[in-house]
Specification:
Helices cover about 75% and strands about 5% of the residues. The protein is built from 10 helices and 2 strands. It is mostly helical. The protein has helices spanning about 1-5, 10-25, 45-65, 75-95, 100-105, 110-115, 115-135, 140-160, 165-170, 175-185; strands at about 30, 35.
Length: about 190
Amino acid sequence: MSLFFVQEKKVQSVAALLLIFTLAYMTPFYLNKRKIKGVRDVFILKSSWLAFVWSVATVIIPVVHLKGFDFGKTELIFFVQRFLFIMAIALAFNIRDYNYDLQKHMKTIATVAGVNKTKIIATTLLGASFLILVFFSEGNLLAAFAIAIFYTVILVMLAKPSAKNFFYVVLMDGVLLVQGLLLVLLSR
């Protein structure tokens, strides 16, 4: 939390907004007189909310830190690419939570579409993410993200409700670290 206070006001404002979005994810509210435990209980919002928050945290906050609120086409394209990539990872976690969500009668993409169709949706999102990179990036950036996307496609195809926590916590969440490490290694 102390890192928050040493940031410029513009970064603090975006981070504070993210905090509100994060709290809304799990804070109960009422919708049509029905108690909702949080945004995570609203059908498609569970995954897209997470993808949005992580995309803001990993694209918008760094841009605001470096350039202020000077957003252009490049930043928007990278934000969309990142959203699609993280949404695919979030869908893999929908697969992990499939049995629990069925028991709790939660509507997620996995419980509505089924595990196999969720894998197809996630893979399609990764394909779209890759196409954005092909058309709008080059060199080491393209190589690092392409490798990470390929790795993520493999993980999505292997995802199943019965997979061990190691698969999701280390391998699936680790995709973001792999991506960063590849950027560093390929930039040398």
